[in-house]
Amino acid sequence: MPSCPDFGPKPHLGYTASLIDRAAHRRGEAAALAADRRAGAYVIGGEMIVARKQASGGEPLFALQEAQALAATRECVLLGFRDGVPHFGVGIGKEAVEGLKARDELLVTDLRSIAVQGLVAPEHLPPLAEAKALLAWHARHRFCANCGTLTDVAEAGWKRICPACRTEHFPRTDPVVIMLAVRGEQCLLGRSARFASAMWSCLAGFVEPGENIEEAVRREVHEEAGISCGRVVYFASQPWPFPMSLMIGCHAEALDRDIKIDPELESARWFDRDEVALMLLRKHPDGLGTPPPVAIAHHIIRAWVEGDVVAFD
Amino acid sequence: MPSCPDFGPKPHLGYTASLIDRAAHRRGEAAALAADRRAGAYVIGGEMIVARKQASGGEPLFALQEAQALAATRECVLLGFRDGVPHFGVGIGKEAVEGLKARDELLVTDLRSIAVQGLVAPEHLPPLAEAKALLAWHARHRFCANCGTLTDVAEAGWKRICPACRTEHFPRTDPVVIMLAVRGEQCLLGRSARFASAMWSCLAGFVEPGENIEEAVRREVHEEAGISCGRVVYFASQPWPFPMSLMIGCHAEALDRDIKIDPELESARWFDRDEVALMLLRKHPDGLGTPPPVAIAHHIIRAWVEGDVVAFD
To answer: What pLDDT does residue A311 have?
Structure first.
């Protein structure tokens, strides 16, 4: 293997390393905690985060009362405590968000842009992810899937209960496998039509009922690229609040080389390690690139380029 | 470390190693596939599996027509293909299951008992898990969580679509972390009140929105036993169709020893490696035991006893 270029220090995975203590046992005290004058809140409407404009970007943490004065609250969920101070997520409607865009003192931007461009201090990303995922679940799950009745919020937003059939509903978290299939000095990257032009990434897909992570990895690589995989090695995981996934990153041993692309993918091909190194460094002669460090795909790819994973051969 | 006893060959994880090719691209052909006279089906009602009685246990695979003649079908889902033959899961009502218990030629038992007692050939466990998880989702998700309307089944049971608001709903798979916290020659086991008497196991809990696997492991061990953990190492994963979980097994480095038990747990304590070895072998002097090999907890514990995991010290 040729010597590996220096990619600089390893940042932690985007949206991880939360400073919030979720303190689940205190979710029954939501009303009292919301009355705490120190309580802070993040304000979210659909994909959009509301922040106060600052020279360096935005400050997304409001006092709870201030947050609730911005627009009508749809749901208010308890994220947990930071240094003993309760932090909430406040969900507002999409129309309300549009209205706030007109206000000069506010920065209203989608979470992906905020994370990629570093528009808020990094410490805010994990609670923003927590709030966004939880509020996105509420926004699409106000009715009982068991009987169709409008449900009530309970446990500070961590449960919904049906007043008719008493079914309890809990927030969804959808496990997704995201993997780099590798074979010798080459790895398999794909691109979907919705990717930014010239970006190539790992293949990925939802874990289905009745399969484990390793089986899901093999199934997805086979479905999307027609490649059979043998050994699968877990690498790391990341919450991905678009809308509410858990990304489970792996490396997989490709057993063959003949790609057969699924129609849902725009393209997939093998890349040499040296070429991928240039893509990571954004020095590729044709401008090809990989996802940014906020995405686990970047780290899965980088770890392989750096030789920092199990060698399958 | 003292020498490790011989636990015998390592069985694969329960409900994994499926022989079914899910062939997701063929889910649009459900009607035509159901007309295939070779089509097979598993019959499930709630927790119960219906099988034909045999000397050695049960044969859970029926011809699809035969399956649908047993009781009124609630949902019929395409599991995939085995050797080119379509296999389905047929969901029936709980009352219908009760009725079938009276029939001499049938064995009607819950999936846990079937798996633990080996009542069906092992090759049937993965498709039974797939069918049970998917049918359990349908049974509790017939209405649109977004607007309350009764939804239509699509894609051979892999989707439900709301005829009113057009929201698409996909089967849930709930990621659960299950972990063994270890410190030197000791590991932390707990028991909940619902466990069989004298059984001790790993701690476990659902991954929440906005956290990754490693954070969920640390949060759960702290919530349930008051123990802080440092490094977390992924071990293996297993589908767990009770009702629709993905168990993500890890080992974790315990940073302290003072246990503070969560009221939801009946007990938790440190066990020496030698004592756990006796529990795995079912030779513990007080009759204490671990979960059976069909559960990933068994393998997580065994791997640590065998020294087959990263040593944290």
So the answer is: 74
Q: Are B247 and B238 in contact (CB under 8 A)?
A: yes
Asked if A170's CB is within 8 angstroms of B206's CB, the reply is yes
> In whole angstroms, what separates CA A198 from the centre of its chain?
22
User: Which of A212, A141, A221, A225 lies closest to A178 in space, CA to CA?
Assistant: A221
Q: How does residue A309 score in pLDDT terms, banded at 50, 70 and 90?
A: confident
Question: For the ranges A173-177, A294-298, B9-13, which has the lowest average pLDDT?
Answer: B9-13
Is the Cβ pair B219, A127 closer than 8 Å?
Answer: no
Contact A223 B24 (CB under 8 A): yes
pLDDT by residue (tens digit) across A67-115? 999 999 999 999 999 999 999 999 999 999 999 999 999 999 999 999 9
Closest CA in chain A for residue B234 = A234
What angle in degrees, to the nearest 10, is found between the helix axes of A273-280 and A296-305?
130
Distances (CA, A) of A211 to A88, A294, B64, B176, B201: 35, 28, 23, 14, 23
**Alpha-carbon distance A77 to nearest alpha carbon in chain B (angstroms):** 12
Closest chain A C-alpha to B142 CA, distance in angstroms: 6
A–B CB contacts, 8 A cutoff, strictly below: 163
Q: Is the pLDDT of residue A2 over 70?
A: no
Beta strands A186-191 and A174-183 are: antiparallel
Mean pLDDT over residues A297-308, rounded? 94
Q: What angle do CA A151, A147, B176 make, to 5 degrees?
A: 70
Q: How far is A79 from chain B (nearest CA, A)?
A: 10
Is pLDDT above 80 for B207? yes
CB-based contact B148 A146, cutoff 8 Å = no
Is A143–B144 a contact, with Cβ atoms under 8 angstroms apart? yes
Residue B250's closest chain A neighbor by CA? A234
